[in-house]
Amino acid sequence: xxxxxxxxxxxxxxxxxxxxxxxxxxxxxxxxxxxxxxxxxxxxxxxxxxxxxxxxxxxxxxxxxxxxxxxxxxxxxxxxxxxxxxxxxxxxxxxxxxxxxxxxxxxxxxxxxxxxxxxxxxxxxxxxxxxxxxxxxxxxxxxxxxxxxxxxxxxxxxxxxxxxxxxxxxx
Length: 171
Hints:
single chain; alpha+beta; D-amino Acid Aminotransferase, Chain A, domain 1; three-stranded antiparallel β-sheet; two-stranded parallel ribbon; 23% helix; elongated
């Protein structure tokens, strides 16, 4: 299921909001066919299953769509997707049988964005936590520029470990 934004890109947050009742058009992209007319297709190769799927889907359907595939060099495709600002790509072995669990024949590869930040401070917590969030900066043209706050992803032990390091540095 996908909600597409004004630029034609899938928007996961918009999908989450739509599933909670927000107004949006949800499209379903069918990417595999496991059974057809009572016949189990899971032992057939992926490309054969997709061919059968494409044959039974209406060509023009406003909500149910065929999820096309691209054969070729996955690394180059991933680079293009990442450069376009997409989340990543799901790579599948074209001749793979269907497996109901995650395995080596289907891989979800995400685009990773990295940035180095400087911890410039923290916001105090009104709870048991050592601090509410870290205040981050980034080096930009020889100057330190505010980059935002981060307060999730730390367990209690990590919060106190960081505070033990930061407290003596406070000015």
